[in-house]
């Protein structure tokens, strides 16, 4: 039996990146702006050959936000169709542990927002569901 490579899902991974709020109360969540898709989302990207999903999630956070992070619990796996092909993205809750953002080809803006403001900024409902999954159990 042969498989159709066009029907194999695109495998990707990302993080709902958070940090303690600068105010000292609660958390802030990172949301990134991707001009190619004209959207605000969580950092994510495709797995490289032989890479685990968790390692890809950490790498993508670093590439897109400049932040090092410590992934915690796995959140949701999001499935959708992108340009006619199935896509599967595994997400982790991850605490930012340092770094600084520099705009790049894929991501031109990074905002650290309180959860309610992040929810309002996120473009896709699936990204709001990921934020809800993070908040369902306090990341702290």
Task: Please tell me about this protein's structure.
The chain has 140 residues and is an alpha+beta fold. Strands 1, 2, 3, 4, 5, 6 and 7 form a 7-stranded mixed β-sheet that branches. Helix 2 (115-121) runs antiparallel to helix 3. The model has no long low-confidence stretch (mean pLDDT 94). The N and C termini lie far apart (48 Å). The protein has 3 helices and 7 strands. The chain has a single domain (10-97, 104-136), classed as Alpha-Beta Complex (Nucleoside Triphosphate Pyrophosphohydrolase), CATH 3.90.79. It is globular and about 45 Å long. 23% of the residues lie in helices and 44% in strands.
Annotation keywords:
globular, 140 residues, alpha+beta, single chain, Nucleoside Triphosphate Pyrophosphohydrolase
Summary, kept brief:
The chain is α+β, with helices and mostly antiparallel strands and 140 residues long.
Name the average pLDDT.
94
User: Helix amount, in percent?
Assistant: 10-25%
Radius of gyration, whole Å: 15 Å
The count of β-strands is 7
Largest sheet: 7 strands, mixed
Count of separate DSSP helical elements: 3
